[in-house]
């Protein structure tokens, strides 16, 4: 059994996870164990700060996530926010509120997953907070990153006559969640479901449990100066497109035939009796990047991503007019897209 006092638990979950030499190279002067962490400031850079919170029974359940997955995804969501600004993730603070059902052994597994994500993206975990909770686990991660001074890519930079692109397929996470929840009602997920749900393919389950934030893609877009605006797809493609449209004061037109529909997603949706477009537009938690760029740079942008082995799909264009998002179908018919995605405060 693991020791039960707070500081012993923290040491058990965090000690010797990241070598002191590596932490020092990452700019950490004082890490976990003091009243605050001390990190060397980066010259000629802007700091980026992001925070994301996951609540048991709201963001995850035992049916959908392992303990390790919860830790991994709690950090990955923040990494994606830094990627959406074109930045580099650096240092994380982790706060956990732990109910009795989450034993020290379960929490160790959660930290296993969190440190797995930290290792993949070069993040130094430098501190946090630990409290008790009456019923459900709460995990909150604050992530600090850097970006070249004055060059962070924002949602507000789109202008009429530009292309709209996405850096990977969408809808896979929602498809995986749909299958893992099985008979859960549409009111719980916000996405219609068939009465009988077959098991989801492993690739869809993996997409939901272990998303891969697009840090490399974000850096390429910033370093080469291609992206005029950028957003990460956390709450759904339609919702993120609306955020860019409203911030930039443009109309965004998505082309249905160009949306990247993965073969396994299409097949699984067919077996479930679900229109895959629902998952692609409104599912969320794909953590790919949605952005805009000048039409004149499209060929060069495609070539750059191809040379780096990264996916890129041009899925629409921006137009002058009131802020909004539209979908052009294969037959050329245009319809407005609802401003919806995952909403924490929606009431059924």
From TrEMBL:
Described function: Catalyzes the ATP-dependent phosphorylation of thiamine-monophosphate (TMP) to form thiamine-pyrophosphate (TPP), the active form of vitamin B1.
Region (Disordered), start-end ranges: 188-209
Family, per entry: Belongs to the thiamine-monophosphate kinase family.
Residues involved in Mg(2+) 4 binding: 35, 81
Note, other: Reaction mechanism of ThiL seems to utilize a direct, inline transfer of the gamma-phosphate of ATP to TMP rather than a phosphorylated enzyme intermediate.
Entry binding sites for ATP: 128-129, 155, 234
Domain PurM-like C-terminal per the UniProt entry, residue ranges: 160-323
Name assigned to this protein: Thiamine-monophosphate kinase
EC number, as in UniProt: 2.7.4.16
Alphabetical list of InterPro entries matching this protein: PurM-like_C_dom, PurM-like_C_sf, PurM-like_N, PurM-like_N_sf, ThiL-like
Native source species: Cohnella faecalis
Keywords associated with the record: ATP-binding, Kinase, Magnesium, Metal-binding, Nucleotide-binding, Thiamine biosynthesis, Transferase
Annotated residues for binding of substrate: 59, 285, 342
Any one GO molecular function term: magnesium ion binding
EC supergroup of this enzyme: transferase
Binding-site residues for Mg(2+) 3, renumbered to this chain: 35, 81, 232
Pathway(s) served: Cofactor biosynthesis; thiamine diphosphate biosynthesis; thiamine diphosphate from thiamine phosphate: step 1/1
Amino acids binding Mg(2+) 5: 235
Coiled-coil residue windows: none
Positions contributing to Mg(2+) 2 binding: 52, 81
Binding site for Mg(2+) 1: 52, 129
Listed PANTHER family: THIAMINE-MONOPHOSPHATE KINASE
Catalytic activity: thiamine phosphate + ATP = thiamine diphosphate + ADP
